[in-house]
Amino acid sequence: MKRILLIFLLILAGCSREIENMNEKTEETFAETKKANAFLASLEDNFSKRSININAFCNQSDKVERRILREYGALFLATEKVEVPCCCMFESDEAVRRFQDSVRIMAEQIGDVKIELQEEAMKAYLAARREAEQEGLSITPRGGVEAARRSFADTLRLWNSRFEPACIYWKEKGKLTEEQVNYLKSLPIKEQVREVLKLEEKGIFFNKQFNGSILHSVAAPGTSQHLSMLALDIQEYDNKKVRKIMNKHGWFRTVRNDEPHFTFLGRSEEELPKLGLKRIEPDFWVPDF
After folding, report:
1. Strands 113-118 and 261-264, bridge-based pairing
2. Of 10, 85, 206, 289, whose CB has the highest number of CB atoms within 10 Å?
3. Cis preceding-peptide flag for 282 (omega within 30 of 0)
4. What is the pLDDT of residues 55-94, one digit of tens each?
5. pLDDT class for 173, splitting at 50, 70, 90?
6. Which of 165, 187, 216 is the last residue of a domain?
């Protein structure tokens, strides 16, 4: 019995050491990448001020997490006046609720719609609205209450609005079998996202038109910036003057191809390149890595 216990403890110690090695490699990978990348360096600096462990936040060796950071990571460079999640991907409704319950929320009735944002983000939005009104312009929410705060269930529903039609489409085209579709639907959400992104590398796309990445059409469940209550979709996104006013008050478009979507960073436009964000025409600011 003692011999069996000893063997078990040795095996357990070996597994623990393997996990430690994996964590060390992740930290080394991040440290090496950070040296040559202003975005990751700024991210670590912003997180250190918030006492967030950057290695626990995002596993740089995980392709899904790295892709999520690349697509939506500008959010995590927001001013310290607001709170940002300590993970790049919420994996449950409970995790989202815990975060949202921990921040200062401000609600505002805009016409027929009541929206909720983090307090500083809302104050900046209302200031932008007042400035726009002085110039005879409007800045109004687009899409009802979902223009601002969303739940994990909201992001899952929006994901499925692209994922499920794409499964039907590609099955009818003979690119996916019934078995493959059932397998995809059976996966935990993070693994489902992983498999969808792998299929997109083969030209099997899951966006609305089946011709581009699903991540440029809808956020993966648990990754939407709306979960942080630092994102707002607006009706007048195509008006350059409106966009300039939003920018002046710390709101920027940070998700490529999502034109109505603005993210509250609470920064000046001059700061953004120094933080490792690059401008993509006409005026999207995305992580440069």
Report:
1. unpaired
2. 206
3. yes
4. 889 887 899 999 999 999 999 999 999 999 999 999 899 9
5. very high
6. 216
Backbone phi, then psi, for 197, in 5-degree steps? -65, -35
58 with 95, same domain?
Answer: yes
- The length of the chain in residues reads 289
Asked, for residue 235, whether it belongs to a domain, the answer is yes
Q: Compute how many other C-beta atoms are within 10 angstroms of the C-beta atom of residue 185.
A: 12
Strands 113-118 and 105-110, sheet pairing: antiparallel
Task: Write out the DSSP string of 10-42.
Answer: HHHHHHHHHHHHHHHHHHHHHHHHHHT-HHHHH
Q: Which residues, 6+ apart, have CB-to-CB distance to 44 below 8 Å?
A: 34, 54
Co-location of 169 and 135 in the same domain: no
Residue 66 CA to residue 72 CA, distance in Å, equals 10
Helix axes 178-186, 152-172, angle to 10 degrees: 170
Q: Tell me the average pLDDT of the chain.
A: 89
Asked if residue 167 and residue 66 are part of one domain, the reply reads no
Residue 45 Cα to chain centre, angstroms: 19
Residue 4 lies inside a defined structural domain of this protein: no
Provide the number of structural domains found in the chain.
Answer: 2
- For residue 200, what are the domain limits? 154-216
The answer to whether the pTM exceeds 0.90 is: no
